[in-house]
């Protein structure tokens, strides 16, 4: 490497110390970002300066302002990173960890000891049941078997095996994990055992448990009390964390950037301040459903509040984000996003200066879930209130609001038994959307089309009981779904954008491509959507951002849901219309009006957001990362449960060109020529004709299985008939659909599923296409969009224009 960053991976043989090089990357890597956050040493920034001619001794350390970059970081703390997995989104996938990366995010924690940092990192993952368990009942043999296999839960099997009596050498023998780490986990277990044997929690014991990283909830579970009891006990005994500073030099020089982590020691390093502070709660580790889109909003809010002369305080635990850069906010707390941890930060900041409040509406569902508890504990919530959040999340209250405002919603019911579910399904009419009432983000959702499918869902996918009811909604088949992002200040609405989903109803909004401005919505419908948005924002009591999902079926507008917070589409809409929505939302939360933001030039002087050109957002889907135990792929089907891990944006002067760009960015370009295989479910055969006709007219050669081929031929479309995989090759060696894909004969696959079950033919077609990198489309609306894009590609005329030029 001549200059800049590099990443080298080594392997050390623990038995003889032999070191080998696995690989070397002459670039900044994923671990460079982690190392930067762990040390406070900005590797990418320094690499960029080295690339333009600086030397290390000429670059100043941003944190100390005294030492040069050639002064290597010195640590007086321990950092632990734990990956965040989402295997529950891919139930058929092999959960074993291999050389293929399967994590979708990560959390990082800092402590003064390994047990403290490890336990903080585990609760930072925000996975229910992921913190260590200290139940004295268990099956040691089962835990040892789990410890022998590399899975997401392996560390839990290791901890449980040690807790149930296995020795460190025994666990090392089955897991091959270094005995040092096992001994540290054993010490955590010993602390838990001591807590369980105590008749009374003394100050010394409780403080020692906190030094081991135990949360109030963990301690409460061990001693049989409530979490609030442990918090109260700590208050009485004056047991609180202090906050130490990441300074790159182990306190040898004074740090000028407040980058803090908690520890149960004596001296706090939080400096006094005079400006009023605002705490911004981040979004935690990336996971499917809550990614960097929310971090974008948090970062823009920090910049906006600095401009308003507030001291900005960021709380987050994700090393992959801009919000956890030491120079984004005035102060950074690298801490878990739990009620206990946020309350302690609030307490520490209140002790050194005024606190105007906490913003919870920008970091996704995580901070929103803390709003009520924080307010009940006396923390001022700025922006939309917890009471307003409750109105949006409570089906009964929200339904009453829609009724008052004379707005329609799909009929629904709450089922406490299979008989209830059947009765509701018959009342509202099939198809219905069913899901457990106690989950968020599409988890466990399914569209069912008849009684037998409903019975299968109830028996297979969920536990239905008076304590665990199931929501049954009428599903708006063949409806057009729309997403709306807007700002409301209590008086005036600024409608930022109305996005039309390209995928059909029933595909999770996070997985559906969408277009702004909408292309198939009438002026009357747009006006109706704006009126409904204002009624809902006013009725809920929004102060800042709101996202509302609508559907139009046969000309009738339905409200699907409202979220009084930043949505994952805020960055997309902001770039499409050239308006900093998160910045405006933060200022509205602190009392500014939309009228004043128009005067200041933050928002347009009049009217709503206007999209410049045509913008298409497309989801990035990780099908190739997840495979079954036999090596075959998981099914590449979209549905009501979100599976995408990212998104891209395509922009041009026409929809076809913009959609084409989005596909190239997300998963590989659509073909400019060649052959296309099409296979439609019976219910899609009529609607699929339009897209197939466009492809044929543009010169693409079509292949189809018998039923689809007949439907196309009946409309005069030239198509070659191929056999289904299940039929096998013909007597004269005729190819199957799978043969065409595996031989590379076709360059695009269109396969719409037959109901919700993975039929063998369809599953093999889809997984084979994914494995070979052939673009695959599984909806009719997706086919129509792709056909328009492919026609545009052949016509040419694409533009390459900078974002700044679009927004002039």
Features:
single chain; 36% helix; alpha/beta; seven-stranded mixed beta sheet; 28 helices; 808 residues; Rossmann fold; Carbamoyl Phosphate Synthetase, Chain A, domain 4; 6 domains
CATH class of the largest domain: Mainly Alpha
CATH topology annotation of the largest domain: Carbamoyl Phosphate Synthetase, Chain A, domain 4
Content-based structural category: alpha/beta
Give the name of the CATH superfamily of the largest domain. Answer: Carbamoyl-phosphate synthetase, large subunit oligomerisation domain
- What's the helix count? 28
Task: Tell me, briefly, the overall form.
Answer: globular
Radius of gyration: 28 Å
How far the N terminus sits from the C terminus, by CA atoms, comes to 41 Å
Supply the number of structural domains: 6
The tally of beta strands, per DSSP, is 27
The CATH level-2 architecture of the largest domain is identified as Orthogonal Bundle
Indicate the percent of residues in helices.
Answer: 25-40%
- Taking pLDDT < 50 over at least 5 consecutive residues as the criterion, the unreliable ranges are none
User: Can you summarize the main beta sheet?
Assistant: 7 strands, mixed
Mean pLDDT: 92
Placed side by side, the strands forming the largest sheet appear as 5-6-9-8-7-10-11
Content of β-strand: 15-25%
